[in-house]
Amino acid sequence: MEQPVKYYVPSIAPGSLIVYSGKAFPNWKGNLFSGALAKRHLNRVEIDPDGNAVAEERLLEKLRERIRAIVESPEGWIYLSTDMGKILRLSPAE
């Protein structure tokens, strides 16, 4: 068994992990995204070529909702569902 790439103390209660592979956000390719159920944000972890977590960003903190599911569309957009029944889409600004 390998050591985790990233862990949290105290736990953010991560859920619905994806590895981003789309073209809509080229700088995020290979990054991990998870919903932080306890902290109520979308968590992005940048992974270097050696598989190490090198940076972290908390997105959508002002939303204050638990992100339950994350999927990537064929266009590379990121869709999220919340425990309040919302479906959200992250797409590049025009």
Distance between the termini: 44 Å
Give the number of domains. Answer: 1
Helix content: under 10%
The main pleated sheet reads as: 4 strands, antiparallel
Strand content: 35-45%
Q: What's the assembly state of these chains? A: single chain
Walk across the major sheet and give the strand order. 1-2-3-4
**Gyration radius over CA:** 13 Å
Enumerate how many helices there are, as a single number: 0
Low-confidence stretches: none
Mean pLDDT: 94
Descriptive report:
This protein is mainly β and 94 residues long. The protein has strands at 14-19, 32-36, 41-47, 53-59, 67-72, 78-82, 87-90. A four-stranded antiparallel sheet has the order 1-2-3-4, with no helix packed on it. A three-stranded antiparallel sheet has the order 5-6-7, with no helix packed on it. The chain is globular, with a radius of gyration of 13 Å.
Keyword list:
94 residues, 7 strands
Quick recap:
The protein is mainly β. It has strands spanning 14-19, 32-36, 41-47, 53-59, 67-72, 78-82, 87-90.
